[in-house]
Amino acid sequence: MTKDSSTQEDQSDAKARRARGEFVRGVSGFRHSIGDQDFPAEPGRYHLFVALNCPWCHRITLARAVLGLETSITLDVAFPNRTDETDPAGPNLWEFTPGRIASLAGAPLPECSFDSGTGARLRLAKEIYQREGSDEQSVPILYDKIAGRIVNNESAEIIRMLDTHAQALGSTNPDRPQLRPEDPTLRAKIDALNDRIYAAINNGAYKAGFSSDQAIYAAAFTAYFDTLNWLQGILADGRPFLTGESFTEADLRLFPTLYRHDPVYYVRMKLNGARILDYPALWRWLCRVYAMEGVADAGSLLHCRQGYFGRSWNGVVPLGPLLPMTYPEAYQHPELAN
Which of 70, 138, 159, 225 could disulfide-link 63, Cβ–Cβ 3.0 to 4.6 Å? Predict the structure, then answer.
């Protein structure tokens, strides 16, 4: 797999940059591929460990849905809030504990599950890594149930594997999109979009929300909204998707961030320059993707609200926005931006 700028962040001087208050995303350590000798493309063999509030996981649940792989690739969902200081294993760990109560709902979240992939009913994602001698603890995880091994934990690479091997993995959607078509000109457009979307939007939201230096935040804020304006311009000609008539990897990678923007990132990531609703072409694109088969069920704003705001200083989750209507119901109304 190619490790380009749209897959992972430059790690040069990462320690010093973090010390200055910059959020620097780490590098995923497991980079095997489906199709390698040890990991053949077979239906029913692979499993995903995800958290529905995590946008990097959301990429993968979207790919699984639009490619028709829900029945052939199994999935477990972590609780959206990680462990705290009272947990015997320590804080900040993803856990597969479906009985945990979500403060926003006042009840368990039905999507959350026990670990059903390893056969050991492990509680923590960290324990899956520990079985392979790793101290990583992130999701997503693509897991081989037959070999009992982690295949990959880099979301950009996983979505390409699922796209490349969709048929061999057991896709049930004969009309599935080709996320990365063979045409070299189209691939170049997708790659250029991915580069800017990753830096300014996907990772840029975290640069703004989790950096502790005002100047770094301001630079991320500016790049984020400059890029939203640029994307609005691309879509203003009436094309349905970013590269034209077809839904591609670029659309898939943009969607999780914009899906979160109005109800979560506008407040939590301090990205209050505008709503997606204020960009008519982008809003209609967002609603168009949301209407695709499987997309609405591949994410959860309840998990997003619980996960992001549940980690804030007081753990209180905002109830809005309520106007022009609640989310995600608003995504069924492209006319709201007219």
Answer: 159
| Residue 112 annotated as catalytic | no
Residue 125: phi, psi to the nearest 5?
Answer: -55, -35
Q: Rounded to 5 degrees, what are φ and ψ at 171? A: -55, 140
| Statement to judge: residues 96 and 241 lie in one domain | no
**Residue 8 included in any domain:** no
206 among known catalytic residues: yes
Which residues, in sequence order, are bridge partners of residue 149? 144
- Cα–Cα distance for residue pair 138/284, rounded to 1 Å: 33
pLDDT tens figures, 44-63 = 999 999 999 999 999 999 99
**Of 143, 198, 206, 224, which one is the catalytic site residue?**
206
Please compute, for residue 280, the number of CA atoms within 13 A of its CA located in the half-sphere on the CB side.
7
Among 169, 203, 233, the domain-final residue is 169
Question: Containing domain of residue 216, as a range?
Answer: 184-337
Question: Nearest to residue 192, comparing CAs of 140, 227, 223?
Answer: 227
The Cα–Cα gap between 333 and 169 comes to: 34
Segment 74-101 shows an average pLDDT of: 96
pTM over the 0.85 mark: yes
The CA distance from 122 to 119, in Å, is 8
Tell me if 80 sits within 8 A of 98, measured CB to CB. no
pLDDT of residue 3: 46
Catalytic residue selected from 54, 57, 287, 304: 54
For residue 3, being part of any structural domain is answered with no
Tell me, yes or no, whether 139 and 240 share the same domain: no
